[in-house]
Batch of 4 targets.
Target 1
Amino acid sequence: MARAAVDDGIETLAATPHVRDDYPTSATQMEVLVAETRAAIEGAGLPLLLLSGAEIALERLPQLDNAELRRLGLGGGHALLLEFPYSGWPLGIDDTLFRLRAGGFQPVLAHPERNAEVQARPERLRGLVEAGTLVQITAASVIGHFGRSSRATAFELLELGLAHLVASDAHGPAIREIAMGAAADAIRDERLAGWLTLEVPRALVEDDLIPSRPERRRRRGLRRRRD
């Protein structure tokens, strides 16, 4: 995966292992394994910086105190990557995200474009975004590897200004390709692609202000379709 990332032009990558009931990864486990993997990457002479971080299931949050959450933040910062479910609208998500923000965290929702409720009504995310939550879409969705609905919803979120990052969400060399370069090309807007893949992620891991979004050039001929 590290070699594939470098080949795709990536210089910095966050680990983001799952933290959920079937993968109950602790901050200590994540930190130890990130250090081992970072050493292996350096030993291989690959020009890739590996950062700490995790992808946390919403239902797992009540079991984690603020100290643990800070260790699981992207790059060791205050941004928390939260796994959005693939079906259903999470009950109490407004209150959950409010409590995180009140605790000094920046919530980032992972892959909501793959959720059937969001596909039916992407505008449903607007209230969460306007309250301060960021949205991350997956590169594989942008290039159509998850089907027409996920791809069309990803682009609609971009058009609506409800997407802030694109990430690989790669799980392994044989499970999901990095595809960041292909996703950037598919967006067909170099400034916007740079904002989504470089400027916003950098601001998050550096605990900096999110830069203003460049104006989106409207794509023509793309219609949303359900699979």
Target 2
Amino acid sequence: METVKNESNKHIRECPKGLIFGSDMDNESIEFTKTNLRNLPFGENIELNVSPFQELPKIENRVIVCNPPYGVRMMESSIKGLYNDLGDFLKQNCPHSEAYILFGKPELIPELRLRVHWKKTLMNGDIETKLAKVILR
């Protein structure tokens, strides 16, 4: 098995620094992700930081993948406000980008207040979710 893994890893293209970055406002989540990235070739080239999305710099002409909270541990008004803020952030700070957002509660999609180009049903563990694509001009 190790031989197959090593042979497969030879075909992985290098991920240049700055190509992929991620953030979360929870330090424990970032540390967990860093631990997982240590197992990937070029995982050290992926930049992670502890920051709410509202404090990220302008993200232009990129692909954005986002898995915001589903609202399981948040009050209804807080989760709606979070999705309103996420939609505003994308609209104002991510021109010429595409965003793929995973919704644990599909009824929260309208809270983005952005046009969704398509939605796909996916399973995240045992939770049925919707992946929505938003194109930002």
Target 3
Amino acid sequence: MLSVLPPRRRLEEGATAIVPLGPESAEPFAAAVIANRAHTEPWEPLHGERHYSVAGQREVLRRDLAAWEAAMGYAFGILDVTDGDRIIGRVTLANVVYGAWRNATLGYWVAADVGGRGHAKRAVSMVCDFGFGPAQLHRIQPAVIPRNVRSQRVLAACGFRLEGRAVRYLNIAGRWEDHDLYALTHEEWVA
């Protein structure tokens, strides 16, 4: 069991920061989601049109806050520090389970216009510091569609190891997609 709920605070590394967003951030966060719709849709479950609205993202951020308060998930907006803290993505530790497992799934996306600048790697690194630190997790595991080479590179750079392939693992963009399962444990992270 989690002994103390992790504080909601900003983490920063170089040109990138991650910060828990609340419903008050719905407008700038929705702007990032809407601007990157074509970029993210091939990698996500199908969303209704409401998802691509301020009201829809306000609800996402409300659910994020409730998950944090229940120690079931920790979501952060990714910010470009060099561009006035513009919201450029999202990184999450979701499906958090404590007890004997102390595990979370990792998800993230970064805006198309800042791809290749290291923001995803720094955001994943910071969320791992958070997960293995204040969130007291033992294991973090992302799942990546095999053709998503950019995400594979981010995970490799952060020390994740490939564990295997899950056939028809998630329904993405209306199709059951195979995913490569990666993992990292606390012992590996601190080493």
Target 4
Amino acid sequence: MLLVLDVGNSNILAGVLDGDKVKLRFRRNSKGEAASDEIGVFLKTALRENGVDPARITGIAACSVVPEVSYALRSACIKYFGQEPFLLQSGVKTGLNIKYKNPQEVGADRIANAIAGTTLYPGENLVIVDFGTATTFCAVAKNRDYLGGLIMPGLRISMEALASRAALLRQVEIMRPAALVGRTTVESIQSGLYHSNLEAVKGIYAEIKKTSFSGENARLVGTGGFSKLFEDAGVFDTIEPDLVLQGMRIAWDLNRKAK
């Protein structure tokens, strides 16, 4: 079994994969400093509590956008699992042609999403929208060129900014509103968060198709923690919540075979 770790700005998302099947998912807050022992104990405890023997983990793959957590995570994998983790970083095989001016600037999670997207939907132009701490857009051409993308504040960041900067507004549960026009402050905030992201997706997707793909069709893929909010919005061609986990699995396998 493969243990996959996606270290984001808010959470560490862990997944256990048996082949290409995700058997288990669990999360841990990634904010603040964390010692390697703390991470190691958490991982082994979470596995056991969910019925997975840590001894059955035969490989570990990780991607991180939080450099200060990466060292502790690597040390935890070595000490508690006896394994050097595969890290998705500059220099490893991805199967992509990164067109960023500086390829090292592309977040590892965005690369993982693109790897999975091009594997699941070969020969298609892709626009991948990841609803995480930030909402990111990635444009990937059908020849596996990673063209670049956009980054904007995520739903939670936007909600927290409203609550912290407006005296009469407060934090709310992020959910799909029942109606466009809210009839309470809470409903109004929820509607604003949801529809601002939805309309942004519609408009940005149309512009990416026009400017990056010369008007050709592109599959619109949603992923990330908040992607299920938009599952029935009629905008996305597909919602793939585990895209980053699958991308890490594919990258791990690709580099293992190369060795």
